[in-house]
């Protein structure tokens, strides 16, 4: 017995040392992932204060920014008819509102979407709505071929394609089929149907997340406690631009998740369709789009009285849905001439973001805590344990996909934790977007773009509206469906339809 103890002592000692080193590594990595590189910090040097937030709130409560207040910024009315796929959603909804504001008759606009519009606007209710599933070529064709009001049926047709599903955390090809069916095949169906319907302009919403490279969280141990710039994880800080569009499509695993991979493929479909008779282009909204309580960026925290987070320090650019919508109309104005198919703008994407420096998620949480009438508090979580848990969640989910037989004994993960997968940590890093290209004058190859909401104004106004609705509702519950939960609903409906 004594010989066995002596023999095992070196093994125990080695295991103890390795365990201690692993703990030191993980603690150091946790500190690193809780930090901000100095060059990124300089891009967002000012934090929002209580006086600033309250002053902005009071101003926007008294005089909110509406399509009427920025009507002069909307490109002038065109004698055209319009189809807006995804017109019930965030960006598509603002496109419809801006078209109406500039004088397009409601009867000259058609919304094609999976769900009907929910905006409380009298003119929007007069806009034609056609329910459709763009993952189905037949459903898409029926929606596009529906007869128009005789007064408008001979007008040129513009299509704004904003319909998509957002699944932010799935990255495995085993889970790609759903994103592909809507975002890739759906875009192909929309392009084909638009051509048959006689459209000569199509502007599509893609995503600035297309340019994001997967972050390499597991840095070399000797770099963790270094003071050099090389200590940060690879791709921990990224600029969101259009440079990737000049290169061939990357391999699937070179995108951080299925969503950007599918949007990149869809973007190429749209841009490669550009020709004299069918001018096209794409708008890439910056990583976080907001502007309605259904959004994930502001609406997600607003709908949660207790919000666990590990990204309070993370600095990112955001874009209000109205800003993204105006960029689509700017693009359309450029593409009205057949000769524009050979312009510097046609057949390419443009990144757009709010007209201000990036902010931290801490600014957003502080704004909600300070201004919202509903309770809100954050729970700070250490990033590394969440990373480790994310691999377990992903592994469990993929196990059920690879071996369906185990689904009888392994139930599906429910709740928000099912989205906790490694891909999520790439979009929880420092992501900075710029309007440098889109804001260039048209004669210089840009869109002449400028936003109408700063991030401070846009997020504050969303809370103003949130408070108005909740104060009017009293003790009644007010619920909103996020774009992520809508994607889940569409996926369930698709599965039910295929099984039926």
Explain the overall architecture.
This protein is an alpha/beta fold. The chain has a single domain, classed as NAD(P)-binding Rossmann-like Domain (Rossmann fold, 3-Layer(aba) Sandwich). The chain has helices at 2-33, 38-41, 50-62, 90-101, 122-126, 137-145, 176-196, 221-224, 258-272, 299-302, 321-334, 361-371, 383-402, 455-473, 483-499, and strands spanning 81-85, 109-113, 128-131, 157-161, 199-205, 237-240, 279-285, 288-290, 306-309, 315-316, 318-320, 349-352, 359-360, 377-380, 430-433. A 7-stranded parallel beta sheet has the order 3-2-1-4-5-7-12, with helices on both faces. A two-stranded parallel ribbon has the order 6-15. Strands 8-11 form a two-stranded parallel ribbon. β4 (157-161), α7 (176-196) and β5 (199-205) form a beta-alpha-beta unit. α3 (50-62) crosses α14, α6 (137-145) packs parallel to α7 and α7 (176-196) runs parallel beside α9. It is globular. The termini are far apart. 41% of the residues are buried.
Low-confidence stretches: none
Task: Kindly report the CATH topology.
Answer: Rossmann fold
Q: Please tell me how large the radius of gyration is.
A: 24 Å
SS strand fraction? 5-15%
Just give the CATH class. Answer: Alpha Beta
Described by strand count, sense and barrel closure, the largest sheet is: 7 strands, parallel
The N- and C-terminal alpha carbons lie at a distance of: 67 Å
**What count of structural domains?**
1
Assign an overall shape: globular
Query: What's the architecture in CATH terms?
Result: 3-Layer(aba) Sandwich
Order of helices and strands: HHHEHEHEHEHEHEHEEHEEEHEEHEHEHH
How many helices? The count is: 15
Quick check: average pLDDT? 92
Helix content: 40-55%
Structural class: alpha/beta
Can you count the beta strands?
15
